[in-house]
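Lecture notes, part 5. Sequence design as translation. It can be helpful to think of inverse folding as translation between two languages: the language of shapes and the language of residues. The source text, in structure tokens, appears below.
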């Protein structure tokens, strides 16, 4: 399998009031073509920091060391302009907060058009056709109407799905999705996760899928890294994480998830949940 991204001893430090704090510690991993790597961990464990550092999305208060080799080229050594080009053409990122990715002043259609004008050679008609296709694929109702809307007129979940659809249609070599399904209800989440699987199969895109949800991650990831306090504390396939995790923190995460599932099943079977 061709390695698409490999990080080596990635470290991220934050300087605040002349003090340096380490947020990401010695993170090394790789993702191959057509592979999906899951990153699991609780809030604040350093998941977003890790991928933001790789993509050059952190400001000057942060110091980064180590290597992030994308097809052999170290992204940490690249200038801002060249990183911007890589981000647009070869690596797509679905950010955790969808609101920040849309300009409040422009309608959805014009924002989608602008993105496709920059990254493809499609004519206007093809762009419109593909924009509608994205919304349909992402199970958004009344796509024609949605294209005319401004971001604040749509829910966070809808914006998140539009972002996922755009990223997928661009067919990047690497897709980084940071909590891509958190704002989406569970039925739609299932369908969106199916889309992730489909793009991987059809295009062979390498993926990094970040989540604190073991259920979502288990559906798409071939391999899972567990992060705690900026460090990788465990890694393996879903079965390893579920049954044989050596790390205490990982076991705790799994137990918590199981406890929630058990409680849910008890409520359903005990009639505490009413379906009408
Ligand atoms: N802009 C920032 N300035 C200072 N510290 C930050 C900043 N962003 C994140 N941190 C800190 O870095 C650490 C890692 O944060 P990060 O956002 O990577 O967590 P995460 O695992 O993505 O959590 P979540 O699941 O909530 O998204 C946390 O301790 C957080 O407080
Ligand atoms: Mg995060």
């Amino acid at each position: 399998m061709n390695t698409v991204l490999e990080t080596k001893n990635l470290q991220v430090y934050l300087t605040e009031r002349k003090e340096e704090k380490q947020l990401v510690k010695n993170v090394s991993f790789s993702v191959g073509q057509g592979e999906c790597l899951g990153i699991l961990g609780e809030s604040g464990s350093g998941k977003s920091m890790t991928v933001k550092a790789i993509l050059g999305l952190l400001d000057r208060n942060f110091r980064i060391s180590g290597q992030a080799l994308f097809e052999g080229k170290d992204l940490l050594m690249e200038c801002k302009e060249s990183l911007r080009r890589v981000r647009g053409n070869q690596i797509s990122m679905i950010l955790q907060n969808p609101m920040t990715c849309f300009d409040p002043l422009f309608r959805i259609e014009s924002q989608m058009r602008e993105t496709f004008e920059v990254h493809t050679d499609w004519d206007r008609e093809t762009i419109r056709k593909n924009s509608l296709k994205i919304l349909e694929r992402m199970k958004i109702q009344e796509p024609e109407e949605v294209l005319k809307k401004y971001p604040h007129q749509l829910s966070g979940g809808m914006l998140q799905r539009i972002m996922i659809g755009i990223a997928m249609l661009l067919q990047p070599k690497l897709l980084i999705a940071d909590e891509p399904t958190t704002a989406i209800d569970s039925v739609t989440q299932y369908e969106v996760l199916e889309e992730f699987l489909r793009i991987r199969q059809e295009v062979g895109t390498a993926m990094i899928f970040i989540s604190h949800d073991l259920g979502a991650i288990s559906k798409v990831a071939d391999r899972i890294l567990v992060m705690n306090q900026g460090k990788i504390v465990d890694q393996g396939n879903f079965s390893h994480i579920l049954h044989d995790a050596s790390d205490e923190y990982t076991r705790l995460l799994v137990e918590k998830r199981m406890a929630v599932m058990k409680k849910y099943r008890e409520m359903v079977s005990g009639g505490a949940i009413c379906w009408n």
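The translated text above is only one of many valid answers, since several sequences can fold into similar shapes. The longest strand covers residues 3-16.
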